């Protein structure tokens, strides 16, 4: 039952569910659990240093500002970036919308030429995208009369590199997921970036499902923008990050306006602060940022390579077990080559919500639905699925409990195989 993240570090994992059964939490792809050190960091900030950052000269404001910016430095190191390349957002959804909407503002004449998008241009996504990295680009295409294109998927849900030809000389943005939240497939970042670089397109990476589970360095990946969410990496909700190359953030216009992001305000015009404050209008998520800083301290102390190896072993165990259960089909690759720990599956004759309820009654908690990724489900011929996803605190015994519970689903509904 050894795990890289000791179970006793997570208070919620000590509780029972379903009439006293041990909690088997396999939904970290949606939101992860928090260790006590993160909870303590948030509580300390609220209890002892609650002040408005960068808005006062008194001690509480100064303390809050210092710890808030220290958190930015920690998170930047964790993702392979410089502190002035990280802007705080509520989550990855906001970060992606920030980039897409700001590019739209630039296209109306408010930013650098490299951000201009218009008729005859195209934006490229993939069929594997979470809606948060699809819908904003659909909207940008509508606002600018650009064309939306996409990279297709192979039969098992990986990016089909034979369709990289949709990226051409009129491509302005290529936005894609690092790791699919449905299939777990890891995208060939280098191949996609190379295709985008060949035509001068901007690269936007959704790193929600990679940053919490493996070592990620945005500088090494050479992406222009990237996003991640705190609540998926053992941090609080309400905090996420947008990474952007320094020179791009300097040129990109803001899309939220108000306090904290201005340098000089006159009645007829305003001068904005440089990035990242330029993108952080309004009151800041101070305690949440501090909590995320504590989360990356916790993850770093364990070691992301160690976490990745542990989750890989759990994924191997789960996939090998699922394929042995009659009437259950994996949605995505059945091998663990270039694969993360999100394992979606369909149970013949049983709706995913019913699957989830049976598993929940046995103490096993998984995600059900389309996971905010309808196109990839459509690619596999289903409307929705159930999904188990693993984190550093999960154990082999929990994987076995999940497999044992899953094997009971079809019999529960009287769907015995001949």
TrEMBL record:
Enzyme class of the recorded protein, top EC level: transferase
Reactions catalysed, semicolon-separated, are: (sulfur carrier)-H + L-cysteine = (sulfur carrier)-SH + L-alanine
| Alphabetized PROSITE patterns for the sequence | AA_TRANSFER_CLASS_5
**Record flagged with keyword Plastid:** no
Q: Which GO terms describe its molecular function?
A: cysteine desulfurase activity; selenocysteine lyase activity
Q: Which InterPro entries match?
A: Aminotrans_V_dom, Aminotrans_V_PyrdxlP_BS, Cys_dSase_SufS, PyrdxlP-dep_Trfase, PyrdxlP-dep_Trfase_major, PyrdxlP-dep_Trfase_small
Q: Which family does it belong to?
A: Belongs to the class-V pyridoxal-phosphate-dependent aminotransferase family. Csd subfamily.
Query: What is the protein name given in its UniProt record?
Result: Cysteine desulfurase
